[in-house]
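#struct-help
A.M.: can someone run this one for me? Single chain, 320 residues.
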Amino acid sequence: MRAMVQNSYGPPEVIVMREIVKPSPGSKELLIRIQAAKVGPSDCAFRKGNPFMIKLLYGLSRPKFAVGGTELAGVIEAVGKEVQHFKPGDRVLGMSVKNFGAYAEYKCLSEESPLVVIPDNIAFEEAVGVCDGGATALTFLRDKAKLRRGQKVLINGASGAVGIYAVQLAKFYGAEVTGVCSAANEDLVRKAGADFVIDYTREDFTKAVKAYDVVFDAVGKRSFSACKHVLTAKGIYLTTAPRLSILFQMIRTSLFKGKRAVFATAGLMQNKANLSFLMELANNGTLCAVIDRRYLLECLPDAHKYVETERKKGNVIIQF
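D.P.: on it. Structure tokens below:
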């Protein structure tokens, strides 16, 4: 089968097309013919091995897993003899957060993986898009912030893959939402449900008078120290950036009852229930996929380059 393989850390060009052995499913596994995957900032970080924490977890000198990609959607081609809840022909959305592998034509996943059937009226690309940012936003807003109706939440990077779904989910939970993005993306963010929009090129939200119950830095650009000023007395700062500094701040702020800093390895916290919930919201129109660009599998390095411009809106999808 065709796969995009990376045997070293580095620029997008380290990812090359190779023919590798097509996997066979074990007794409790499914073989999925992949139809869509995605590229986001986290994928670029894994490709570069930066921040260094990635190398500590996934290989110091070279990537432990040569084929990257976590979110995937496709059709089940075969199942192991002990698989009970899926069958060949099922359209499925899955996540491979432990050993990656979505940038290949086929992938085997355990039946127990974060894996669900895609509703009939949702396309493969839409399912991957909603899963990409939606799963992360759900973990931070629902599980970590315990977002409640009437609370005020600010989302930095509101037009990105995580931010655009964070806006939609925050509105679903009844919050007042302020989105931070460029002026060019204001209409997109308002359409997603934002009550207020701040143009970061003209206004620094960390110097505002208004206070928020939750500040979600969906792009990892602003520190807890910078955002403390705009948090309520017991406000929560959330960030997607896996830096050592945020770990120390989490420990320190957890010792007191005031403002708190929170980071989570959202990808490792996903499960079937989360994916089912996201597909339910997408099926009833509460969550809408926002797809910026599509690239063929062999153009994966170009997709990485575009994501690294930091100008994308919503998702960048890989087509098979």
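A.M.: thanks! The chain has a mean pLDDT of 94.
D.P.: also worth noting: The chain is about 25% helix and 30% strand.
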